[in-house]
Amino acid sequence: MQLVRSLISANNDKYEHFAYTETVIDVIENHVTSQPDICIESCKSLIEGVSKTIIKRLDNTASDADLKDMDVMPLFKRAARKLAEYDETLELDFINRTGSLIENFGKIRNARGDISHGRAAPKEDVSSPQFSNLVARVTEALAFYVLDHFFRLDLPDEVETLRRQPGFQ
């Protein structure tokens, strides 16, 4: 996850709220071999969080309520579509095709997740460390790709954008 960590750090001045992902990245890295299903859950969470943040930043019609109940694959695809509106170099077709991978992260998390569904012990299905490592690497590559495109956009400063919203203090 060093690619994503470095990219977020390099863009912290303009997008400091992405620093929250450090915690998720730590969980991913610390659980790849010791608790693979927690790693996979965290990979799904990272993709969801990055996708929601991109959508909210690029689509002023998006609300928390609108995004709250969306599954990870539609979130990821929606974020990619919004990015493609701003950046024609984004390989939208390729990203859309990776949606099935993202969808499977969600299915695996729902079937095997430890945290979100509070599984009874012993669990019937457990992911291997090798599979967890694969999911972590795919997650890193996809997160890096969309974040790199997002960070390259010439958007107004985020704090300035927030100040223009009603109710900002």
Features:
169 residues, mainly alpha
Q: What would your notes on this structure say?
A:
It is a single chain. This protein has 169 residues and is an all-alpha fold. It has one domain. It is built from nine helices and no strands. It has helices at residues 2-10, 21-31, 36-58, 64-68, 72-86, 92-97, 99-112, 129-152, 158-163. α3 packs across α5, α3 packs across α7 (99-112) and α5 packs antiparallel against α7. The longest helix has 24 residues, at 129-152. The model is unreliable at 159-164 (pLDDT under 50).
Summarize the helices and strands and which ones pair or pack.
Layout: H1 2-10, H2 21-31, H3 36-58, H4 64-68, H5 72-86, H6 92-97, H7 99-112, H8 129-152, H9 158-163
Helix pairs in contact: 1-8, 2-3, 3-5, 3-7, 3-8, 5-7
Percentage of helical residues?
Answer: 55-70%
Assembly context of the chains: single chain
Rg calculated over all Cα atoms? 16 Å
DSSP summary: helix tally = 9
Beta strand count? 0
> What's the helix-strand series?
HHHHHHHHH
Q: Low-confidence spans: pLDDT under 50, at least 5 residues?
A: 159-164
Q: How would you state the average pLDDT, rounded?
A: 85
Question: What distance separates the N and C termini?
Answer: 35 Å
Principal-axes shape call: globular
Classification by helices and strands? mainly alpha
- How many structural domains does the protein architecture include? 1
| Residues in β-strands, percent | under 5%
Largest beta-sheet characterization = none
